[in-house]
Design goal:
Blueprint (H helix, E strand, L loop, with lengths): L3 E4 L9 H9 L5 E7 L11 H10 L3 E7 L7 H6 L4 E5 L6 H10 L3 E6 L17 E5 L14 H14 L5 E5 L4 H10 L3 E4 L1 H4 L4 H9 L6
Parallel strand pairs: 1-8, 2-3, 3-4, 4-5, 5-6, 6-7, 7-8
The protein binds D-xylitol-5-phosphate (DX5) and zinc ion.
Length: 220
Amino acid sequence: MERIISPSMLSADFGHLDRDTRMIDESAAQWIHIDVMDGVFVPNISFGFPVMNPIRQASAKFLDVHLMIVNPEKYVKRFAEAGADLVTFHYEATDSPGNVIRMIKECGVKAGISIKPATPVDVLADLLPELDLVLIMSVEPGFGGQSFIEGSWDKVRQLRRMIDERNLPVTIEIDGGVSAANAGDLYAAGCDALVAGSAVFRAADPKAEIEKILSAQPTR
Ligand code: DX5
Ligand code: ZN
């Protein structure tokens, strides 16, 4: 299985967004993670469409957009138009996740759903055949730099089983508190894609850190 890393631009230097995007573009990372926060679904506000444009212009990599917003159905089309390759919304942010998935696919981009730490993976059982990706939050969404929640291991393993039993082509991504220290175990537990913000951007050599995460060995 291919190991994917998606550095989170939330931890980039917004005064040098072009430089930091080009740096990721030249790295071994396959994806670029874009965290959109509305101050309602999460207690923080990040950025929206105007900030996506320079990122899209500076890189041809796969843009992995993580919407932490209420009423995602209102905005999926605009994120697709802004250059998203994958739009992931939160299960907890809508009453009709199936409709949001369909709307995203109608835009011609991949559809992902994310669950907060307290949401069990079972809620996704019926939606899995419609999805391209499930994003497990391993911290409370809203801020970078938090510690990995240990309860996430069981969620990854359970979701891996649910997907493999039905032989579904669904990618498992995990977000929050990921570093080279737990990356090997996360890939081994069944994650396909790891999001890493502070671990990458606070490293002395972000490109080397990306390679370290991609080649990390399991510790258990
Ligand atoms: C948090 C965001 C994450 C964040 C991760 O709500 O969804 O993508 O950037 O940051 P780190 O890797 O520092 O935990
Ligand atoms: Zn994220």
